[in-house]
Design a protein that fits this description.
The structure is a single chain. The protein is 38% helix and 22% strand. By secondary structure, the chain is of the alpha/beta class. Helix 2 crosses helix 3 and helix 8 packs parallel to helix 15 (424-440). It starts with 14 loop residues before the first helix and ends with a helix.
């Protein structure tokens, strides 16, 4: 036990946190862990408080956090406890079977080691394990769950978070991330465990290593689903620059493009080797323009038509294409999604597959323009909470409907239902198909996007994220949401707020009529304002990062493609003014 004594050079450690710390100084935890804790108490008490003040929680993308010792950190014990709870739940749900789990991991520091810890705990609890021999893309893990007839899947990843992070995403037997009621039941199982309950001694007879056999089937399926009809001549005439940003996509994307018939693919060599330190970028997030700087520079040298970069676990993609001036322009996630949905629906329509029971899907903070596209093709657009687990759940909840594709503004897209999570492998191929087809037809990816704006209205979105780290940051984010509910906006940039949706209370209030109605969607800490001029402003805390996010969507009619540049500037200025009016920039 550590006996805390007051030191003028140290900050006060609360008794509840000390109690947690002392638990980790017992023989249940290895000597190295105990040594690290004692050194941190002596030398960095603020850090040790951050490490122990709470348990890591499951958010929209699973459990994600900084690696290190403590209950609020990713380590063998927090992952071991989660896996023990999941093992117990599997046996409860499937009492007459040997449960099966498939495990993948990305390029991050310690991912391979932590994946083996998870495999050991599963096997020690009588769960048969299929462990990928080396790093693999997250969408392949989702695919492998159903391909191998597993009851669940785990991928060790922290997506695009900084290098000090890692994470643990849980998938159920349908290949989608775990959702209610299973997620709550597993969390209860985990919370009722002590760390001493975790079985770490592996049963090696239950651990199977997998690799190329699964890769080949996954890539072939990606080619089948991501192809929308580009001719070989069109493919040969398209120049592609691709960067994996030091991540796992290098194991799947180049081979997928090759099998699909694309030959002019240049890879950014400096970013080709997987590396959890991400040495050439400040952030390995394709949402941030700086992440694609090297790829854009290579594309300019080579005169490439399209640039694509994926995040470390290969579920998000950033796309840049030539604009009407011939310059490479980064698209936002909504723009890429609009084009992908439109081309998939065109394909379905040309093949006479639209029968009235098809749907696309997106999230509450993504572009409203998808409603226009859905109406134009006679399909339904289902709108869910942020996070692809909710899109995957739709496929399970509506087995009589056919899912075409769907995505969210944060650079994620899912083509068909063979993968049940956002999938940058298949989506990269689809983006290249669109670029090849439009170029062969004398147009371009960008020009066809503008034509959609003329047909359906021009929608532009802007996202601002405020980072608030640590205990104090979490409290500030919490208070910002409280303030938004207690003192809601009434006017934004001179336009009246006419409706407020509060997903925490699952209510929608019409401020004109005063009527309040229920929202038929799971509760979540999200607020959306709708203004008289058609703008939308949403705010929500991130489920995976210490951030609060503000989403702005503005729109206007576009009468001619020649007017696009001026209108785009006008809409961008309007979105910026809204953010200034809210004191966010």
């Amino acid at each position: 036990m550590f006996n805390y004594t007051t030191n003028t050079n140290m900050i006060h450690i609360e008794p509840k946190i000390l109690e947690r710390i002392n638990t980790w100084l017992t023989p249940t935890f290895d000597e190295e862990t105990q040594k690290t804790i004692k050194e941190s108490i002596a030398n960095n008490p603020k850090d040790i408080q951050e490490s122990f003040y709470k348990d890591l929680e499951f958010g929209t993308g699973g459990m994600r956090g900084i690696m290190g010792v403590g209950t609020n950190r990713i380590n063998k014990y927090t992952l071991g406890k989660s896996t023990q709870g999941l093992s117990n739940y599997l046996h409860e749900q499937f009492p007459n079977e040997t449960p099966k789990a498939v495990i993948a991991f990305d390029c991050r520091h310690n991912s391979k080691t932590l994946a083996k810890v998870v495999a050991d705990v599963f096997s020690a609890n009588g769960v048969e394990v299929f462990l990928f021999e080396d790093l693999r893309a997250t969408p392949e893990l989702s695919f492998a769950v159903r391909h191998l007839n597993c009851h669940c899947g785990i991928v060790l990843t922290a997506s695009h978070n900084p290098p000090e992070y890692n994470g643990y995403k849980v998938y159920w037997g349908d290949g989608g991330q775990m959702v209610p009621p299973h997620d709550g039941a597993v969390i209860n199982m985990i919370n009722n465990l002590n760390y001493a309950d975790v079985k770490f001694e592996a049963n090696t007879n239950l651990i199977n290593y997998i690799g190329k056999d699964v890769d080949d089937v996954f890539i072939d399926n990606s080619v089948d689903n991501g192809s929308v009809g580009a001719s070989q001549d069109a493919k040969d005439n398209l120049k592609i620059v691709f960067t994996s940003l030091h991540g796992t996509s290098i194991t799947a994307v180049p081979e997928t493009l090759k099998r699909a018939g694309y030959k002019n693919v240049s890879i950014v060599k400096e970013q080709e080797v997987p590396d959890g330190g991400f040495p050439t970028v400040k952030s390995p997030n394709p949402e941030e323009p700086a992440a694609l700087k090297m790829a854009l520079e290579l594309a300019e040298k080579q005169g490439a038509d399209i640039v694509i970069g994926t995040d470390p676990d290969c579920d998000r993609l950033g796309v840049a294409v030539r604009n009407t001036e011939g310059e490479l322009q980064l698209l936002n996630g909504n723009q890429t999604m609009i084009m992908m949905v439109d081309f998939l629906l065109k394909k379905w329509k040309s093949e006479n597959k639209i029968k009235g029971n098809e749907f696309i899907a997106t999230t509450i903070v993504s572009t409203p323009m998808l409603n226009k596209l859905a109406d134009a093709y006679g399909v339904e657009n289902k709108i869910v909470l942020t996070g692809f687990k909710w899109i995957a759940k739709l496929i399970k909840d509506y087995p009589d409907l056919n899912f075409v594709g769907g995505g969210e503004e944060s650079f994620g897209f899912m083509v068909g239902d063979f993968v049940r999570d956002k999938d940058a492998v298949t989506s990269t191929l689809l983006a290249c198909e669109i670029a090849a087809i439009t170029k062969a037809n004398g147009s371009s990816f960008f020009e066809e996007l503008i034509k959609l704006y003329v047909e359906h209205g021009c929608y532009k979105e802007k996202l601002i994220s405020l980072t608030k780290k640590g205990i104090e940051g979490a409290e500030k984010i919490k208070q910002m949401m409280v303030d938004a509910r207690q003192n809601p906006l009434t006017v934004v940039n001179g336009s009246k707020v006419i409706k407020i949706e509060d997903y925490e209370s699952a209510t929608s209030k019409n401020l004109i009529s005063g009527e309040t109605t229920s929202i038929d969607i799971p509760k979540s800490n999200v607020i959306i304002y709708y203004t008289e001029d058609g703008s939308q402003i949403a705010l929500r805390p991130s489920g995976t990062e210490p951030k609060i996010k503000f989403y702005v969507s503005v729109n206007s009619e576009l009468t001619s493609t020649s007017d696009f540049k001026a209108l785009e500037a006008q809409l961008d200025s309007k979105a910026e003014t809204i953010l200034k009016d809210m004191n966010l920039v």
